Sequence to fold (396 residues):
Amino acid sequence: MRLRMGICALAAALLLSALAGCSSGGGADMSAEQRLAQAQSGLESVTTNLTMDPDTAATTLRAAARDFAAVLQSDAQNTRAKFGYALSNTLIGFFDLTSVMPKNMKAPLLQTITAARSRGVFPDAADSLALLATTALADGRGRGAVRDVQLRIASRTLDSAKIALPYYEQLAAAADSGATLSLRLYEGGRIRTVTFGKADIQLLGAGAHFVTALLHAAVAFNLDMPGGTMLRPLPVDSNNNGLLESNEYLIGYPFLERSNGAYLTQFLHYLRQACDLAMVGADMPGHATGPHAFLDVSNPDTVAMLDRLDDYATAISVASSASVSTNAIFGDRITRTIALAKLGQITDLRALLPTFQKHDLTAPGIWPDPTFNGAITPGIPQGVFTLYYADLEGAY
Fold:
């Protein structure tokens, strides 16, 4: 354990040193306090300007992360720099995730967040983070081909996201010891300074681990589409069975082949860590209080939100291999075994994609393996989750 901690510390120091060497400007004569102020200003320009173009926001966050890294290089215990560095890299990861996401997934997700906000599902300053998500989901970004974004995630974003994770634990301890951690956020039509307690940092850490998990999933399979689409110009029913199977309508390999099995293993690892942190952050005392609190824990809506988060996190955390009732989801009174580790054994995503009727492409697809490689048995009922051919046509 001590050796592993030493290696992690060395890796963090090397990365911070590299980033410090390419900070966002200001000259070598800029003091650490001036650079910290510049970095904080860059980060808060994103968290307070929710109409900022996503490309500009991502570039601004990268510059802020470099400045925070430069401060940490000279003052490794600077709590404000740790907070800014961790949060900037988590947000960069989230913006990169939305660049990989299929276009026709963004609109429904955006609608879901908007509807949830209108119902008050995200009370207090948590609503600001929901608003920030809508900025990242804005359509029309020109951030390059999906495969280029995958390569950027694998070569740069993932390392920065993972190096930042231990800082959340350090920050939670600092907040518990009385350190003031604050950030300016846009909330309720105004900009205000929000403070974070130990439990609030735990929740941010859970979100950071969840983003890191999804970043691993985003690069686990090859998404190279030279023509900009995943579909053949004309699907071909090669076996003349009246159905179009995935190999008959998708472009050729290596599209959807697994890039690296370790990415899926790491996806599950960070997903479970995210759930564990979410359960702790949702249940434990230690949320900031007062007029600048991140969450108003005296608000019944806030308590209800934390209870839901705890329920979801618990369900996913125990689902590594457990028998659970899924009647609340599927309404069929069947107890299913959930084995998320089976997802790590998938080598070709196209084997899981639906089959379509050759002469009626408007009909919903049929899942060839409703167990999804044995991850849920018995499998999900056909028709619970539907995917249409048109969904694939408009994906990228």
About this structure: The CA atoms of residues 31 and 71 lie 9 Å apart. Confidence is low (pLDDT under 50) at residues 1-21. The chain has two domains: 2-221+258-320, 231-257+321-396. DSSP finds 13 helices and seven strands in the chain.
